[in-house]
Amino acid sequence: MNQIDATDVSGEFGPADRLHPNTSLTAAQVVLAWGLAPERTPKEKEAARRYLHQWPEGPQLDSVATRHGTPRTSV
């Protein structure tokens, strides 16, 4: 589970959970974007990777290249 507190969203979410009933945005998509940010430490990226692996069919850090052209194996 992941705790998210924002202006219009609050609660605990598993990777496949939608953040709001009226949107298709999942918690996994938010964590993926967060995990791909260039300022993330290796420890933070590992935390994102572990969270995302809870939903094997969902997005994964290892299968997405960053916007800055980093090879997939180093994400």
Number of helices: 2
From the helix content, strand content and strand pairing, which structural class follows? alpha+beta
| Order of helix and strand elements from N to C terminus | EEHH
Q: Which band does the percent of strand residues land in?
A: 5-15%
Count the E strands: 2
- Rounded Rg: 12 Å
Shape: globular
- N- to C-terminal distance: 22 Å
Average pLDDT metric: 82
Keywords:
single chain; 75 residues; alpha+beta; two-stranded antiparallel ribbon; 2 helices; 2 strands
Describe the structure.
There is one protein chain. This protein has helices at residues 27-36, 42-52, and strands at residues 2-5, 10-13. The protein is an alpha+beta fold. The chain has a domain at 25-75. The protein has a two-stranded antiparallel ribbon with strand order 1-2. The chain is globular. The protein starts with a strand and ends in a 23-residue tail after the last helix. 13% of the residues are buried. Mean pLDDT is 82; it is low at 71-75.
